[in-house]
Amino acid sequence: MQSFKTIADLRAHLTPLRQRKIASRIAPQIALVPTMGALHAGHLELVRRARKAADHVVVSIFVNPAQFAPHEDFQSYPRDVVRDAQAVADLKLDNVALFTPDVAEIYPAAPRTQIELGDIATRWDGAARPGHFAGVALVVTKLFNIAQPGIALFGEKDFQQLQIIRQITRDLSIPVEITGVPTAREASGLALSSRNAYLSDEERNIIAPKLHQTLQNAAEQIRAGKDIEQTLQKAKQDLTAAGFNAPDYFAYVDSETLTPLSRLSPLASRLLTAARLGKARLIDNIAVT
Ligand code: AMP
Prior knowledge:
Strand content: 15-25%
Largest sheet: 6 strands, parallel
Bound molecules: adenosine monophosphate
Number of strands: 9
Low-confidence stretches: none
Mean pLDDT: 96
C-alpha cells in the first residue's frame, strides 16, 4: 500500500490515474475517505465501500487542529499511524493509498479563509462546540481540492457533519458525490468511535450503550405518536440517571435541515444526541421516519 505525506506526492500519484480513465466505466475513478485515524471497524467499512464505488481510494489520516477548540482534546486525541496503516493493509484491497500529511503541510500558514455555513452549523454540536464545523468545512474542502475525488464517503455517526458536507458541495458546486454510510456499532449498540478509548471498561460496557438504547426507546415513542417534548425530556433524564452528564442536546429534527420538529414528521426525521460520560463526549443519532 502506498502512503503519501505531501500534497505534491499525492497529486503526482493521482493525476495519471485520473487520466487513465477507461471510457466504459461509469464508476468514479477516485474515492476519498477522510479520517482522523485511530481507525476502527466503522472507518474500515467506509474504505471497503469506497473501493466498491471507485477504482482507487485515498484514505486521509489527519487530526485537524482547526476543528478543535483550545480546551478540547487535540493534543490527547489517539494517534497511531503505523497501526492504522496495518489495519488498512489487512483489508487486502488493491489501489488504496494513505495520505498522512503533517499539520504544516495542510496549514503552511494560519488559514484566514472561512466557509460561512449558516444555520445548520449553529445548532446541536455547532452550539456545543463553537467553530468546530467551520474547521471541518475548511479541512474537508481542502481535501476535496487536494485529492479531487469523484466520490467521498462519510459516516452517519456524525450526522450533522454529513449534512453540512452535503450542503457545502451543493452550495459551492464541488463536483464530489457524497455518500453517507450507516453507523457501525458494537454488539451492545454503542457506536464505534475513536473516543471510546477514553472510557473505562464499566463506562464502555454498561453505561455508554444506554445512549443508543435511549435513542431507540425515544424513536419508538415518537413513532407511536407520544408528545415530542415530553419524550425528549424523559430521554435526557434517563441518560443522566444512567450516569451521563446532562446531555448537550437530545433533539428530534428534520434529517436534511436539522431544524427541530415538534410533531411526528412524514418526511425523513432523526433523533440526535450528545452527552459526556467520564472523559469522553459521545454523540449518536438514529432515523425515526
Ligand atoms: P473520524 O476519524 O472520527 O473523524 O471519522 C472519520 C469518518 O469515519 C467520518 O466520516 C465518520 O463519520 C466516520 N465514522 C466514525 N465512526 C463511525 C462509525 N461508528 N460508523 C460509521 N462511520 C463512522
